[in-house]
Amino acid sequence: MDLLMLGDAVTASEQGSEFFSNLTPPVQIALLVGALSFATAVLVSVTAFTRIIIVLSFVRRALSTQEIPPNQVLMGLSLFMTMFVMAPTFEAIHSNAIVPFMESAKPVEDGGEPAAEFGLDDAVSASVVELKSFMILNTRTDDLALFFDLSNTPPPSERLDTPLKIMVPAFIISELKTAFIMGFCIYIPFLLIDLVVSTILMALGMMMMPPVVVSTPCKLLLFVLVDGWQLIAKALVSSFASA
């Protein structure tokens, strides 16, 4: 019976592959683009990416360096820092979802024992559990309570049983709040430099000179002397709770 079910699963997978390969190239491209768009939404909604990119954007604005570093550099740095922070979660998904699913999809050799049945639904469920575990650790209780109240849903006895329709928006709101708090803390020393420079220029009677012309080099010098990028990276990685 298990062999028959495994054979049906392999056959369904092969039929899905044949169906995709038989589609016209424009339809295949449309499906791939749609999948990439969904992947981008997942990246922003359920990972550490949102907090990291917002904090790095605050750093650039606080330094008054306009488009330096460029957006591509910030996006790349945010992406790889997200991969670093999410590495334990991705490894757990690989071990608990992807590997069992691939093993169950392998054809059974003659005389071999069939692998335990582990379908696509099981793989998705295991992946969702691992993502929920990460989000729960980094979501404020007040934010969860807000969306439970808005949906008129009683909170479950176990936080891991929280539905995604509540967990994801609560996680995003919590990430935004944390990112803005970190951005405020980053702004304070640079704001003080702006105030000091403006006061000195007014005292010297140089009211026509924009303060940013003098304060920007001072900010850059301070940022380099304290090894600012290292401090920012350490603060960002340390701000995420892990199991």
TrEMBL record:
Subcellular location: Cell membrane; Bacterial flagellum basal body
Key words, A-Z: Bacterial flagellum biogenesis, Bacterial flagellum protein export, Cell membrane, Cell projection, Cilium, Flagellum, Membrane, Protein transport, Transmembrane, Transmembrane helix, Transport
Membrane topology label: Multi-pass membrane protein
UniProt GO BP: bacterial-type flagellum organization; protein secretion
First and last residue of the signal peptide: none
Record keyword Transport present: yes
Domain of life: Bacteria
InterPro entries tied to this protein: FliP, T3SS_IM_P
Location, primary (coarse class): membrane
One GO cellular component term noted in the UniProt record for this chain: plasma membrane
Bilayer-crossing regions: 29-59, 179-208, 220-241
The keyword Plastid appears for this protein: no
PANTHER family associated with the record: FLAGELLAR BIOSYNTHETIC PROTEIN FLIP, SURFACE PRESENTATION OF ANTIGENS PROTEIN SPAP
Role of this protein: Plays a role in the flagellum-specific transport system.
Similarity section: Belongs to the FliP/MopC/SpaP family.
Protein name (record): Flagellar biosynthetic protein FliP
Species name: Stieleria varia
